[in-house]
Description:
Elements lengths: L4 H10 L3 H14 L4 E8 L2 E6 L3 H9 L7 H8 L2 E6 L9 H12 L4 E9 L3 E9 L9 H4 L2 H15 L4 E3 L6 H11 L4 H8 L3 H15 L4 H10 L4
Antiparallel strand pairs: 1-2, 1-5, 2-6, 3-4, 4-5
Amino acid sequence: MTVQFRxxxxxxxxxxxxxxxxxxxxxxALGNGFANHAFLELHGAGARYIGDYPxxxxxxxxxxxxxxxxxVIAQARRRSGHFFWAAPDWFATRNGPLKRFATNAIEHxxxxxxxxxxxxxxxxxxxxxxxxxxxDFRKPKQQDLDDAVPVLMALYYRLSRIGEYSNSAxxxxxxxxxxxxxxxxxxxxxxxxxxxITRLSTRTVQHYLDSARAKLGAATVPHLVAISKDxxxx
Length: 234
């Protein structure tokens, strides 16, 4: 049975848990001929995800931060709204890493899809994608697609309230030393004070904080703390 975006919007608005949201997304995906769905929130160098893409693809995508290479992300950043995509089209490039990305996506069945994109506050990029391996899915009519971005924003709001994401790109990228110093920095401690508490040299503490800033795309330590709290690293 076909499920329209307006119906999905109603289901998301009334969801009280991450599992309820997943059921709603799965119902829409299967009702329109898709095999998988994924919601992605990008902020700085971090990403938060909820969906049912294959576990191996999800792990590689987040651990290796492939969203920096993903053509779907690149197109979403250029404009809000919706668009259809096909991974085989990505082979028409001389970019070796992009070709490998396309091959990997296709091997995991993430071959054809529909993506809805929008920007939220504080420079967040939001995406909601539905995909399958064959490209044989229902293409919603324009009247139905008018509800696509409202669904994405409702999903973002509901997930923010519930606080449930399947995975996050960030925690695994920071070393134990970086996380330790970041945690103390979030408590208002200076590099000198962190060094006294942790028995590390001030230079080592600063190195850990600088490294964490580079990994998360933060301009300053306060910015680093803000990003880390936002993606629930600390």
